[in-house]
């Protein structure tokens, strides 16, 4: 690194507070100069393959010209306007587009800024829906073990079982935590695990169905707690049971949305329509912070009335930011392009071939794929987010110019859709070598 860059990093260390980072022990942050396609260019001239879509937000490669042009054009027209009492073309067009893409009557779009706020909005909507309907005894929220829904207080409450938020646990509202089967391909016990989880759900519903407001879940793939998957059949069975009792279903598709699971949305792949869906990562193709909470029309109607008390009193300074909406519109167009649609299957196949380097290694397990997401677990004594193998693996991939950032002992690829088969292959090959060198099988 040259002197100017070194000074820059020193300044960062002096003034910047980074997320999810223990600054005292972490390596220096890496200045990134630009991105192009699947490659990130570091300021000191390295080219890094981005296997994780930069925290799961990028869809079609970095700095995609169509999206950046849409933002530039919008910026010269209208950058922002208050969204209570006013509206604008990008927000209207995007809402129309999302209603068209989403299944069923998921057609009422509420804008906010990020995944956590999309979740907060969903939880608050569900809660007030029942109050407006005169059923304010419905206060309990159901969640799954290992769920992650974001870092704001309501979202942390819903994600309490991840144990990531123990520092604040006394602030949380109480949630009921369901058993998560956590299955993978060729998992011989998947039906048994699912049956047990459904039995526990049935027991809960026998006792508390009439006090329960909503379930919130990450459908098909739990992200942050370790790319934990279930079969569509399981989610469908859960939703059917809840529907029998009128309990609302909130799908947090902040990560699974926009093609990650091989369909536009996980709910589409499962074949169910949730009452509320939360979308964010990927919405603007990774360009700008924006999110939506989309409700079925029936939910929206419960908020209408003569009195302001029935309205949904929630909003943010930047609700429906026009630049974000313009970026998202361009992103939705790209999502529907033939090239992107074809890439879903292509990437899935490439993961399947690549995981073959790992399937025979005894120190790995739970090889699994859902659409464009591939993962496996390293067998270790201290599994989980803080597994000591995690940092060694991060460094291993970094030394090979790969942004491939395991969640503890869970190694995964969640790439932009422009990644090539060869790049996917390289990633899994490097992972197999890492297992042989860094995590040899226990005797
Ligand atoms: C990332 C994530 C969130 C939180 O989104 P932010 O934009 O980081 O606030 C919520 N739910 C899921 C499933 C996520 O993956």
What radius of gyration results from the CA coordinates? 22 Å
Query: What profile does the largest beta sheet have?
Result: 7 strands, mixed
Rough outline: globular
Helix content: 25-40%
Question: What does this entry look like structurally?
Answer:
The relative contact order is 0.15. The chain has two domains: 31-63 and 338-438, Aspartate Aminotransferase, domain 1; 68-335, Type I PLP-dependent aspartate aminotransferase-like (Major domain) (Aspartate Aminotransferase, domain 2), CATH 3.40.640. The protein is built from 14 helices and 16 strands. With 443 residues, the protein is an alpha/beta fold. Helices cover 39% and strands 16% of the residues. The strands form four sheets. The chain has a seven-stranded mixed beta sheet, with helices on both faces. It has a four-stranded mixed beta sheet with strand order 1-2-3-15. It has a three-stranded antiparallel beta sheet with strand order 13-14-16, covered by helices on one side. Bound molecules: pyridoxal-5'-phosphate. The site of pyridoxal-5'-phosphate has 15 residues, from helix 5.
Features:
14 helices, single chain, 16% strand, four-stranded mixed beta sheet, 39% helix, Aspartate Aminotransferase, domain 2, alpha/beta, seven-stranded mixed beta sheet, Aspartate Aminotransferase, domain 1, binds pyridoxal-5'-phosphate, 443 residues, globular
């Amino acid at each position: 690194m040259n002197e100017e860059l070194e000074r820059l990093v020193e300044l960062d260390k002096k003034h910047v507070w980074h997320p999810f980072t223990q600054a005292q022990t972490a390596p220096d942050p890496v200045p990134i100069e630009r991105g192009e396609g699947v490659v990130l260019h570091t300021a000191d001239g390295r080219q890094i393959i981005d296997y994780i879509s930069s925290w799961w937000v990028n869809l079609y490669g970095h700095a995609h010209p169509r999206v950046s042009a849409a933002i530039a054009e919008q910026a010269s027209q209208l950058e922002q306007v208050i969204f209570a009492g006013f509206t604008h073309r990008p927000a209207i067009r995007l809402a129309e587009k999302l209603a068209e893409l989403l299944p069923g009557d998921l057609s009422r779009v509420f804008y906010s800024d990020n995944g956590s706020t999309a979740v907060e909005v969903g939880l608050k909507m569900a809660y007030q829906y029942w109050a407006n309907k005169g059923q304010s005894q419905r206060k309990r929220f159901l969640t799954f073990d290992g769920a992650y829904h974001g870092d704001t207080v309501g979202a942390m409450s819903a994600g309490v079982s991840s144990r990531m938020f123990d520092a604040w646990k006394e602030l949380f509202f109480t949630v009921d935590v369901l058993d998560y089967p956590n299955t993978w391909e060729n998992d011989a016990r998947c039906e048994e695990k699912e049956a047990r989880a459904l039995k526990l759900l049935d027991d809960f519903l026998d006792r508390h169905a009439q006090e329960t407001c909503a379930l919130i879940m990450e459908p098909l793939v739990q992200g942050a707690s370790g790319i934990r998957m279930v079969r569509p059949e399981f989610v469908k069975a859960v939703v059917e049971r809840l529907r029998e009792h009128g309990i609302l279903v909130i799908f947090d598709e902040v990560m699974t949305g926009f093609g990650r699971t091989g369909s536009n949305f996980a709910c589409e792949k499962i074949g169910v329509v949730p009452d509320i869906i939360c979308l964010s990562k990927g919405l603007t193709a990774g360009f700008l912070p924006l999110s939506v909470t989309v409700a079925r029309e029936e939910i929206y109607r419960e908020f209408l009335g003569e009195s302001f008390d029935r309205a949904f009193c929630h909003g943010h300074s930047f609700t429906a930011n026009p630049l974000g909406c313009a970026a998202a519109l361009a992103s939705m167009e790209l999502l529907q392009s033939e090239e992107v649609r074809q890439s879903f299957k292509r990437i899935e196949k490439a993961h399947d071939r690549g995981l073959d380097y790992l399937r025979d290694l005894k120190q790995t397990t739970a090889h699994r794929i859902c659409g464009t997401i591939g993962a496996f677990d390293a067998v270790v004594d201290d599994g989980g987010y803080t597994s000591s193998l995690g940092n060694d693996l991060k460094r291993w991939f970094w030394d090979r110019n790969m942004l491939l950032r395991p969640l503890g002992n869970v190694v995964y690829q969640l790439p932009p859709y422009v990644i090539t088969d060869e790049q996917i292959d390289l990633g899994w090959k490097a992972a197999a070598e890492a297992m042989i060198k860094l995590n040899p099988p226990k005797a």
